[in-house]
Design goal:
Layout (H helix, E strand, L loop, with lengths): L8 E5 L11 H11 L4 E5 L9 H13 L10 E6 L1 H8 L5 H4 L2 E4 L5 H14 L2 E2 L9 H14 L7 H18 L8 E2 L4 H15 L5 H5 L22 E5 L50 H48 L3 H49 L8 E4 L2 E4 L5 E3 H4 L2
Parallel strand pairs: 1-2, 2-3, 5-6
Antiparallel strand pairs: 3-7, 4-7, 8-9, 9-10
Length: 425
């Protein structure tokens, strides 16, 4: 369109604007804007800047200032993306922020029937056959469409992202139900997709605030809420606030002013999800297989105990690290409070140095936690791949859990063993 000197889009997040130490956020925000000069700067999940944290507030104030400077005015397009309620909260963090972003783009939810189509495509990629879901007039498909309608009315509905998550749950259920099959394509049994979709709906509803949240989205507090009425209006979909801070075509009409956001209850304070410790290993088996020697069985029992202890140790490590992070955060907040109350300049400098050290400890703990989670994700992914491959091999007709042993895996019944070489690992 000739509005900017480049077609490049710079993608960023809130963490790319916010620094860790006092006085560094402003220069960091400005540096990012300089990278985006003459381009489009796209800030995803920008609502994280609306946390009222002083570093985030500094980034917002710097952004407001930069957008009016001659260096950037008319030479950059800034896009802030996020969910509507969260973005409204962000725009209220600075009186001048909303005026810098006068244009708002609203995205409608994907149609429920399209969600079914996406689900079928994802299952097809995983070689899961579901012919009973291909007829749009089938009863199960109609019920599935109704579930997607109700999901679309809930806050935080992730559209295709949540549909893909659902497809993975369905795939796991289909593979587990046909573990003894040697067919290339797994046949999905009727009602599996509908059952798991209803479970997703129930789980999302249970995570909403009690009473007020349920009344707001149209059902009572029971285990089987009624289906959504056709006349019910869905909640506002995700939006993107944009600052088209660029040279305009003189002949083009001015953009329409965005409608003011509808009054609504403030979003509930979001708490970080509680970390659940890894579940203990509980192999599915009915006892010792016939013909298994005492030596093999005793070794298998020891390996089962080792897996349980390893899972318990991982849970203990995660709990210990989480507690250390909480203590570091509490120490940082305490020092910040003492810093504000200190009248002596020397005492303030000393407290500032302590606070910085506390932040550094916090950062190291955060990185340790991220590394622990990464290692755990990789371990789980490898183990899931191995267990899936073992089920696909069909060696253990009983479908028992496989236990890692030296040089391979043995079924929980004890009579079947597959080497690492046979698994290609």
């Amino acid at each position: 369109m000739g509005m900017l000197s480049s077609t490049e889009v710079i993608e960023a997040s809130a963490s790319d604007l916010v620094a860790q130490y006092v006085g560094q956020t402003g220069p960091k925000t400005k540096k990012l804007f300089e990278r985006g000069l003459g381009k489009v700067l796209f800030v995803d999940e920008a609502y994280r800047l609306g946390t009222r944290d002083r570093f985030a507030q500094e980034a917002i104030d710097e952004m407001v200032s930069l957008l009016t400077q001659d260096t950037f005015a008319g030479k950059i397009v800034v896009v802030l993306a996020g969910y509507t309620d969260d973005m409204n909260n962000l725009l209220s963090a600075n009186a001048g922020l909303s005026s810098r972003f006068p244009e708002e783009i609203m995205f409608d939810h994907i149609a429920p029937a399209k969600c079914v189509s996406i689900l079928l495509k994802e299952l097809e990629k995983q070689q899961i056959a579901a012919p009973h879901l291909e007829d749009p007039d089938a009863q199960e498909v109609e019920q599935l469409v109704d579930v997607f309608k109700q999901l679309g009315r809930l806050p935080g509905w992730g559209n295709a992202r949540d549909v893909i998550t659902l497809s993975k749950e369905i795939m796991r259920a289909a593979v587990n139900s046909s573990a003894n099959s040697t067919a290339t394509t797994v046949q999905l049994e009727p009602n599996v997709a509908l059952t798991l979709a209803r479970k997703m709906l129930k789980d999302k509803r249970e995570r909403l605030p009690k009473s007020s949240g349920q009344a707001k989205y149209g059902w009572l507090d029971n285990d089987d809420p009624p289906a959504a009425e056709a006349s019910s209006s869905p909640p506002p979909p995700p939006s993107i606030a944009t600052n088209t801070n660029s040279s305009q075509n003189p002949g083009a009409p001015p953009p329409a002013a965005p409608a003011p956001p509808a009054a609504s209850s403030p979003p509930p304070t979001q708490q970080p999800p509680a970390q659940s410790p890894p579940a203990s290993i509980e192999p599915q088996h009915g006892g010792r297989d016939a013909g298994v020697s005492d030596a093999v069985w005793n070794q298998l029992e020891r390996d089962k105990d080792a897996e349980i202890k390893e899972a318990e140790q991982r849970a203990k490590d995660a709990t210990t690290l989480a507690a250390a992070r909480e203590r570091a955060e509490a120490e940082r907040r305490r020092l910040e409070q003492e810093e504000r109350q200190a009248a002596d300049a020397a005492a303030r400098r000393e407290l500032e140095a302590k606070r910085i050290r506390a932040i550094q400890v916090q950062e190291r703990l955060r990185k340790l936690e991220e590394e622990r989670q990464r290692v755990e994700r990789e371990r789980k992914k490898r183990e899931e791949e191995v267990q899936l491959k073992l089920r696909q091999l069909g060696v253990c007709v009983a479908g028992y859990q496989w236990i890692k042993q030296g040089g391979g895996y043995r079924c929980a019944g004890g009579s079947h063993f597959v080497t690492d070489g046979q698994l290609g690992i």
